[in-house]
Fold these 3 entries.
Entry 1:
Amino acid sequence: MQDENPYQAPQAALQDPAVHELVLADRGMRLAGAIIDGMLLALILLPMMAIGGYFDGVMRGEQPSLASQLGWGLGGIVLFVIVQGVPLARSGQTWAKKMLKMRIVDLDGHQPPFGKLIGLRYLPTQLISMVPVLGALFGLVDALFIFGEERRCIHDLIAGTRVVRVD
């Protein structure tokens, strides 16, 4: 007497190999990526600020107005989306992450939607960083979270993302 149905589908548990083989990006590579992306943004934004007169008053020792600081801060966010939007939308990578062979994935290993990346991963931390004192403190704590076992910064926790290596 046979207990198994020969026509029954196999019962093996299957795993998505793309999700199973994800390797977290090294902390040093993530730091290098953040530095490169920051330099890329600075190469574009700082000349714009100089041409726009932001530094004229600063060079005379004047404190920029809150409106001016917020305007340039929001301009920096818009510039980030313009510069990094295409690679983020296409592959979950900034230009530096693409160069350093890293990408942003959700906790299931899939590419997060562009709106989620901008709206949860980048925008909240950039807005908080514009608040005097609190912004600098938040930036430090956010970066220090990478030393946790999961290597996820606060912006990763907010967005439900992680950064993995791409081979």
Note: The radius of gyration is 21 Å.
Entry 2:
Amino acid sequence: MRAVDQFVGRQDELQNISTALVGDGSRHTAILHGLGGIGKTQLAVAYATQHKDNYSAILWLNIQDEASIKQSFAVAAKRILRHQPLAKYLSTVDLTGNLDDIVDAVLAWLSEPQNTRWLAIYDNYDNPRVPSNHDLNAVDIRRFLPDSYQGSVIITTRSSEVRQGRRVLVRKLESKQESVDILSNASRRVLSPSSESAATRNGHH
């Protein structure tokens, strides 16, 4: 069973992401905001998996810090070239060279007029460069977004200060039945709320 098939109890959030990313040719951005460990990354994975046929390319970028995001762009560049060896801007960039040059090449490729059906997921944007954050290591996501206003973007963050798109609150699973649904999917069994504790004790997580 695929991981996304086990991802239940988040249908409202998945629908909210879909609504935020409904495109008309311009770029749309969904900000998945919630506490650490609450499931923001898994939610982004579930959305990307369910809607993969709607996108010509999906880029996963770790924006925890500048080093991580630049390395993520380098990985993305290699994957793009595997599928499109003649991709404009990327086919001439040195993938073992300056990371800033690689970032710029990927962003230029994302800005190509015909390249509008991509999805870029910026994961772990927990240290944004905003006026209230005085951390010198904070990241300005604008440096890593394409100039052209097209495509779709998902940002996962613990910060309430990220303002680049439409906010989707990722909540704690509050319903006992939602927790049971997850256990049931994971164990391929039908459980009732009363059997949840027994299943957990027996190792069906």
Note: The chain has two domains: 3-172, 174-205.
Entry 3:
Amino acid sequence: MGNADLERTTQGRDRTSPSKTAEIGRKHPVHQPVFERHGVPIIVFLTVCTKDRKKILANDQAHLLLLKAWDAANEWMIGRYVIMPDHIHLFCAPADLNPQPLSRWMNYWKSFAARRWPVPDEAPIWQRHFWDTQLRRGENYDAKWDYVEQNPLRAGLVESVEDWPHQGELNVLRW
């Protein structure tokens, strides 16, 4: 492991990109436990992809099912989210002082949605792993949201970000 890789890991969160992950011998992202800093909220930015990047998420049925899954998996609160055809970006925060591990919560809602998926031929639905980053500053939340909100526009799916129907905010996550 090089000095830059060691520095990323010892700072509490591995910021390694997918291509760098393969380069250093890992086949999936590292999921560090969230950490609490005095007086700073815990907000995590997640990206979850469909298996083989199937374009099956950007429809009303999938959107409603995901809302039900997130409601059932109530150990973490969903803030802002954008559902793209083959992936989801969302912000989340623990719902209580002793949150269950992020990966367990993710597995729960992904399984909930997969068991109720309206088109059985599309199974499996999800990639096994996900990408997560715990935000360190309020500016990161705003900057990442600006990037995420533009995804449908950059993909040519809408002419204005306000036109994308598969987005929302379930809870206001305050920095």
Note: The radius of gyration is 16 Å.
